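Mods, move this if it's the wrong board.
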Amino acid sequence: MAAEKIIMGTAPIRAQNNGDGTFTPLFGFDPAQAAAEDSDLEIARGLVTGITSKHRLGGHAAVTTAVVNIAPGGIMWFPTVASTVRVKALGNAADDTAGTGARTILLTGLDENLNVATDTLVTAGVAVSVASTITFLRLLKAEVILAGSGRTNDSLITLEVGAGGTDVGIIDATKGLMESSHYCVPAGFTAYVTRLEILTSGTKMATVTLYRQGGADESAAPFSARRVMHGVSDFTGQDDERFRSYIILPEKTDVWATGVYASGTAGIEVDLDFILVDNTV
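Not the wrong board. Structure tokens:
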């Protein structure tokens, strides 16, 4: 009897060894699935022109019986006017340009035209940092790039608008990344949501809702309305949704998650996977 081999994919496939270096699938082989898996890898490797894969990691460590945005401290920023961004004062002395903690923070966001833009902040310990030169209409990511011997941020880092007075995001202590479920589709692109995973750390029932809202560049009423995109209610543990029909998000659309517990206080994590496609390809 010819030897058999297990070919691993989304599901294992049993195949017969033909003796010449080739294998014939015996059952369970789905050519469309195999092609899709190869495509996912090619996209992740950056080999498909105009198409990139994206992952959002959002978390809130202390969700209560009040609805909050799934992001550190529940902070999300939806301005109608672009602003510079800086590190807020009263941080930790270790998170300084010569300290053991975070030394530089890379900001990735959308500028006043909702085009992707990046800038780097240099930390200043307990003092406010110099503001970014880029003005942002949306902040998509903030991550520690250079650090001292501690290899990441020593303490919580709060980001605020350049003029002060409005917080725009938080990097929790030792995380090195702003874990926000919020994303905004850049101008000229379309996002296709492929997967949503929700994790709760408590034993109480949780409700998590995913919202979408168009018109990120709108500055006066009437505004594009917010509406529910997906949700799970009264559950604990893990909920992993893989969308057979991708959820389509046009350019300039915000997407984010909120969470609430029926009782008690615990953490909620929301992971979002999507494919971002350049509208010109």
